[in-house]
Q: What sequence folds into this?
């Protein structure tokens, strides 16, 4: 977490630090990111940066928290609107998430790098830190849906949906370099997700 002094900065300076950190981590990932470049972009001294954050890792997770909080707020807005079948809601959720990525490309690049498995300690810490958020969203999807009668109890259905989404997300993160732009990723992801949903409908509904 940032030190108390960071929150005492004026908003302009705080935003410069956030923007510089976000840009650096999005472009280089955690391991290759340079605090020297960050302070240069933010127009502050390196000594100042470490008055606000204990170290590079502290800054990194603050930036990740900032980005994920923004994504969660955006998706909560979308999830408060749709009512219907759980599979329809999943598609709405997936499309809304991609639309947010398209509008916030640095945020997308940061998250793509952060959740790409490189077997590093920082990756392991990232997965452990944010796995609960994914589970809470899965439960939110199921709670808000007005779905048909399911063959199985909700918890088991939720696990199946979570595993499919996690597997599909991991696949597209790994293969993202094969696509020319994020719009192509979005189209292919949604097309593949729809195919899995059709399969699941046949196996989960009464």
A:
């Amino acid at each position: 977490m940032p030190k108390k002094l960071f929150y005492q900065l004026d908003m302009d300076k705080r935003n410069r630090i956030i923007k510089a950190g976000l840009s650096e981590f999005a472009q280089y990932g955690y391991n290759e990111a340079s605090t020297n470049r960050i302070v240069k972009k933010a127009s502050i001294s390196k000594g100042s940066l470490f008055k606000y954050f204990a170290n590079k890792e502290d800054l990194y997770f603050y930036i990740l928290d900032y980005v994920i909080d923004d994504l969660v707020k955006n998706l909560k807005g979308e999830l408060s609107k749709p009512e219907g079948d759980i599979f329809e809601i999943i598609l709405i959720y997936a499309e809304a998430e991609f639309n947010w990525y398209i509008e916030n490309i640095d945020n997308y690049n940061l998250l793509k790098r952060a959740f790409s498995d490189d077997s590093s300690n920082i990756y392991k810490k990232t997965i452990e830190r944010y796995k609960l958020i994914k589970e809470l969203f899965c439960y939110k999807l199921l709670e808000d849906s007005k779905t048909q009668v399911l063959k199985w109890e909700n918890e088991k259905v939720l696990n199946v949906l979570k595993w499919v989404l996690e597997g599909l997300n991991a696949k597209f993160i790994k293969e993202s370099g094969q696509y020319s732009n994020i719009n192509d990723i979005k189209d292919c992801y949604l097309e593949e997700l729809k195919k899995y949903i059709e399969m699941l409908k046949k196996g989960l509904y009464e």
